[in-house]
Design a protein that fits this description.
seven-stranded mixed beta sheet; 16 helices; 469 residues; TIM Barrel; alpha/beta
């Protein structure tokens, strides 16, 4: 479901029909709402609203427009509200040089104290950054430079937070990303004169994009001039999908994952036995693994195991029938991939039975494995795969055994690296295609890894950390 990361449903505009608006958002698959505070009263009311629905959360903020009225007693009132378990962020806070309703120095003073509040409660920040009226080039004001300076002075890098309702240039976008911030886009993305914002969407990695309505403001083009509401978030998502050249479903999953990574909110989704990425359907075989890779979320205690908006943490390993029922139609996909966070070959019998059923449907199959299968079962599992697996992708992840042990941390200890290479060579003799993969962590020498693949006589693929599919 979509996450509206910035709305103001506590505002008086919703007094006549607030609950109707909330239910309408759910019907449009907007399943989590972050109701944003702008002063003491609105922060208190946002938190009160969050108490009434499990899927609504709130933030505590003080908008730069009112910064001239900010005081230490105001700060203490906000601090008390922040103690609520439904408060998940500090904001809306920032700099507004467009209306300049408060002197610049008052805006900065308020912002510094709100950074202190975020630091105390370890909450992400929701940043409002708006410059003076555009110059002939459209950009070049002082709000972004001032904000960057304040962030670097008062916040720990990388900064947990979001540039809400982004309206800057691609250059300013990159500056926000370099600081570690997410970037959020609202309904103004759909306006005819918003080409600079659309260019920013194209330049922004999907794993750093959030969606928002800023309701009641900034209704998308088809509702422009009317009161905005979370149900209209889908229209902004459709525009992002078009600009990025990806499906609406991928925008939905990825932006939800981003929001739930940044903010301490619960995920509305259920565990996924199968999940689609691009034109491939992935089978979530198991959460168990024979390694503890340093870069893998599975190694983190109490991890919820989210991937591109999918919840991959399972209560139990699925049965063959569970998975085949979940697969459903296969015609939209080019291949089925046996994957998940765990090691698929731990369940070799399950893998074979599912692969047999899928091959009967004419599907191409791929196995993503760490190559420990022979060690796990104390025999060669390669004969089990013949005729059932079209491609084996083996995670090698290092150019030598010493680095492999440090990065992958295999259960089988010293010598595992050589056994994995033996598995690769055995697969190469009997299966249609074999690939070795490497995650580009700082420790590895990419050129040396390529040489290992060349000696093995197989293709090498290098994957950026946190980039999948």
């Amino acid at each position: 479901m979509f996450v509206d990361t910035h709305c103001h449903l506590q505002f008086k505009e919703y007094d006549p029909d607030r609950e109707v608006v909330i239910q309408r958002s759910l019907k449009e698959s907007v399943g989590t709402l972050l109701c944003v505070g702008t002063d003491v009263a609105m922060s208190r009311e946002a938190n009160a609203l969050a108490q009434t629905h499990r899927f609504i959360y709130s933030s505590v903020g003080f908008h730069p427009h009112g910064a001239k009225d900010f005081s230490e007693s105001v700060f203490q009132e906000l601090r008390e509200i922040t103690k609520s378990t439904k408060v998940v962020a500090v904001g809306e806070i920032g700099l507004d040089y467009y209306r300049n309703l408060s002197p610049v120095e008052d805006q900065k003073r308020c912002l510094r104290r709100m950074f202190d509040l975020a630091e105390e409660f370890r909450h992400p920040v929701l940043l409002h950054i708006r410059d003076a009226a555009p110059t002939p080039s459209g950009f070049g004001g002082q709000a972004y430079p001032d904000m960057i300076e304040l962030l670097k002075e008062h916040c720990t890098l990388p900064i947990r937070g979001v540039n809400h309702c982004f309206s800057g240039s691609v250059k300013e976008l990159q500056e926000m990303l370099d600081l570690g911030l997410y970037v959020s886009f609202a309904g103004n993305l759909t306006y005819p004169k918003s080409d600079p914002i659309r260019e920013a969407v194209k330049a922004c990695p999907i794993d750093r994009i959030l969606l928002e309505t800023d309701a009641p403001y900034l209704a998308p083009q088809s509702y422009r001039g009317k009161r905005n509401e979370p149900a209209y978030l889908r229209q902004t998502a459709v525009e992002v999908a078009s600009l990025k050249g990806i499906s609406l479903e991928e925008v939905e999953r990825s932006t939800a994952e981003n929001a739930l990574t940044l903010f301490p909110m619960s995920h509305p989704g259920e565990e996924q036995l199968v999940y689609a990425i691009g034109d491939a359907l992935y089978v979530n075989v198991t959460n168990a693994c024979s390694a503890r890779c340093t870069f893998c979320e599975l190694s983190e205690p109490n991890s919820e195991l989210f991937l591109k908006g999918y919840r991959l943490k399972m209560k139990r390993d699925p049965s063959v029938q569970d998975v085949l029922s979940a697969v459903g139609r296969t015609d939209p996909y080019q291949e089925v991939v046996f994957c998940g966070y765990g090691e698929p070959t731990l369940r070799i019998k399950f893998l074979v039975e599912v692969a047999q059923a899928l091959k009967e449907r004419g599907m191409r199959t791929r196995l993503n494995t760490n190559g420990h299968g022979n060690l796990i079962h104390r025999r060669s599992i390669v004969p089990d795969l013949i005729g059932l697996i079209d491609e084996v992708s083996v995670s090698l992840n290092a150019e030598n055994g010493e680095k492999y042990n440090a990065i992958v941390r295999p259960h089988f200890g010293v010598g595992t690296y050589e056994k994995v290479k033996e598995f690769v060579l055995e697969c190469k003799k009997t299966l249609p295609k074999v690939v070795v993969t490497f995650v580009e962590v700082p420790e590895i020498d990419i050129a040396a890894c390529q040489k290992v693949a060349d000696v093995l006589g197989v293709e090498a693929r290098f994957r950026k950390l946190d980039v999948v599919g």
